[in-house]
Specification:
The protein is of the alpha+beta class and 403 residues long. It has helices at 3-16, 20-31, 78-95, 135-141, 178-191, 236-242, 268-271, 276-283, 312-316, 360-370, 399-402, and strands spanning 65-73, 128-133, 169-175, 196-207, 257-266, 327-328, 331-337, 343-353, 377-387. The protein is built from 11 helices and 9 strands. Strands 1, 2, 3, 4, 5, 6, 7, 8 and 9 form a 9-stranded antiparallel beta sheet that branches. Strand 7 (331-337) and strand 8 form a beta hairpin.
Length: 403
C-alpha cells in the first residue's frame, strides 16, 4: 500500500470512529489608580518589569501558559480609546506586579469590585501582557497605518475561520500559572466593556519555543523539539536586526515589533499512525534527541544537504531563505474534540519580526508550497498586529500613536 493511500485510509478510519456611559465612567476611575495594594502572598518568582524600552512578552523568557485575546473596537472615537488604553495600562502594570486592580476585590456593596478576585493570594507568576494593533484599528480610528501592517496573503492549504481570525487589538497574556493569565485577560475584557468586545481568544500550554537556548528545548504535540534555533532573548544584535522595528518605522512603533498569530490544527490521529522514520524524515531531525540529520546532538549545526530536500527544518532554515529569521513564541493547545472523535489540538504559533514581508511571509510561502508536514496540519486561524515599543512610567500603551 502506498504512503498516500495508507494515510487516506487512516484519515477515513478516524472519521468513521472517530453600557457606554457607565463604562466610560468606570474607565476614568480605573485609570486614576490609588497607591498599590499588594496581594496577600509574596511572589515565588521575581515579577517581570512592565516598564521597559520594549514590551515584555516578546524577547523575555517564555512562560508555560498563554491566554491570547483579539478584540474588535465598538467605537470610532479616539478619545474613548485613549481612556481605555490608559485604564488597561494601569491595570496591566499592577497585575504584572501581583497587585490588585484599583480598589481591589472589595468596595461599595452596591457596585462591582474593581478586581474580579480569582488571583488574590497568587504570585505574579512572571505574568507579561503585550498589546498589538491590527489593520482595523487604524481604519476605524482614521489613523495612518504602518506600511508593513497589511493583511496576510492567502497561502495554499489555508482554511481560515473568520471567527478565529483578525481583530483590531490583541492582548497576549503569558504566565506560569494559567489562572493568573486568565485573570489578566478577564479583567481587561471587563474594563473594556462598551469600547471593545472579544472577537476570539485562545488558551495555550506547554511553550513550544524558547528564548532561553541554554534551557531544555520544549516539544510540540507531535513529540518533536521545537525552537532549537530560535533567537535568544539576550542576543541584542539579532533582536535589533530581525525583531525590533527601527528608524524605518513610525516613531511610535520603534522598539516594537510585528506579530503574526496563526492557529494551526494538527491531525493528531493520522500523525500517531505514521512510522518513526517518516516522522523524522518530515522534520529532518531525530525525535528523541532532536539532532539534525547529519548530526548527533540537538544543537549540532544544520547541514542542509544532509537533510531530505523538502524536510520542514530545511525549508524553514535561514540558510534556505537568504537569512530570513523570526522570533517564535508558540504554545500547544487542545480544545476538546471535533464531534468525530478527533482531538481539536495543535500549535498556536506566535512570530515576532521587524518586517512580515521579510519574516513570516517568505517562510510560510516556502512551507505551504513543499512541506510534507502539510499533510498533517492546517492553518485555521490568523491575525497580524503592530506591537508598539515599551511603556515608560506615567505613559500608556499606544500613547505616541494616539496623542
Amino acid at each position: 500500500m502506498t504512503q498516500l493511500s495508507r494515510r487516506k485510509l487512516l484519515t477515513g478510519a478516524g472519521l468513521a470512529v472517530g453600557a457606554g456611559a457607565a463604562a466610560g465612567a468606570g474607565l476614568v476611575r480605573l485609570a486614576q489608580q490609588p497607591e498599590p495594594v499588594l496581594l496577600q502572598a509574596a511572589s515565588i518568582s521575581e515579577p517581570i518589569p512592565f516598564h521597559d524600552a520594549h514590551q515584555a512578552g516578546i524577547a523575555t523568557p517564555v512562560q508555560d501558559r498563554l491566554h491570547f485575546a483579539a478584540f474588535d473596537l465598538s467605537t470610532d472615537s479616539p478619545q474613548r480609546v485613549v481612556t481605555l488604553l490608559k485604564a488597561w495600562t494601569a491595570a496591566a502594570a499592577r497585575m504584572t506586579s501581583a497587585q490588585e486592580i484599583g480598589g481591589g476585590a472589595t468596595g461599595a456593596e452596591l457596585a462591582p469590585p474593581d478586581d474580579t478576585g480569582e488571583a488574590l493570594g497568587l504570585p505574579a507568576s512572571r505574568l507579561t501582557l503585550t498589546i498589538g494593533f491590527g489593520p482595523g484599528f487604524f481604519d476605524k480610528l482614521k489613523l495612518t497605518r504602518p506600511d508593513k501592517l497589511k493583511e496576510l496573503p492567502h497561502f495554499p492549504g489555508d482554511k481560515l475561520d473568520p471567527a478565529r481570525s483578525g481583530g483590531d487589538i490583541c492582548v497576549q497574556a503569558c504566565a506560569d500559572d494559567p489562572q493568573v493569565a486568565v485573570h489578566a485577560v478577564r479583567n481587561l475584557v471587563r474594563i473594556g466593556f462598551g469600547v471593545v468586545s472579544v472577537r476570539w481568544s485562545q488558551l495555550g500550554f506547554g511553550k513550544t519555543s524558547s528564548t532561553t537556548p541554554d534551557a531544555q528545548t520544549p516539544r510540540n504535540l507531535m513529540g518533536f523539539k521545537d525552537g532549537t534555533n530560535n533567537i535568544a532573548g539576550t542576543d541584542t544584535k539579532k533582536l535589533d536586526e530581525h525583531v525590533w522595528v527601527g528608524e524605518e518605522g513610525p516613531e511610535w512603533l520603534r522598539g516594537g515589533s510585528y506579530l503574526v498569530a496563526r492557529r494551526i490544527r494538527m491531525h493528531i490521529e493520522t500523525w500517531d499512525r505514521t512510522s518513526l522514520k517518516e516522522q523524522e524524515d518530515i522534520f529532518g531531525r531525530t525525535k528523541r534527541e532532536g539532532a539534525p540529520y547529519g548530526g548527533t546532538r540537538e544543537h549540532d549545526p544544520v547541514v542542509l544537504d544532509k537533510m531530505p530536500a523538502e524536510s520542514h527544518v530545511r525549508l524553514a532554515n535561514p540558510g534556505s531563505l537568504s537569512g530570513v529569521t523570526i522570533l517564535r513564541r508558540g504554545y500547544s493547545f487542545t480544545d476538546g474534540s471535533d464531534g468525530l472523535g478527533r482531538l481539536d489540538a495543535g500549535l498556536f504559533f506566535l512570530a515576532y519580526q521587524r518586517d512580515p514581508e521579510k519574516g513570516f511571509i517568505p517562510i510560510q510561502r516556502a512551507l505551504a508550497a513543499k512541506d510534507p508536514l502539510n499533510e498533517y496540519i492546517q492553518h485555521v486561524g490568523s491575525g497580524i498586529f503592530a506591537c508598539p515599543g515599551g511603556v515608560k512610567p506615567g505613559s500608556f500603551w499606544g500613547e505616541a500613536l494616539l496623542t
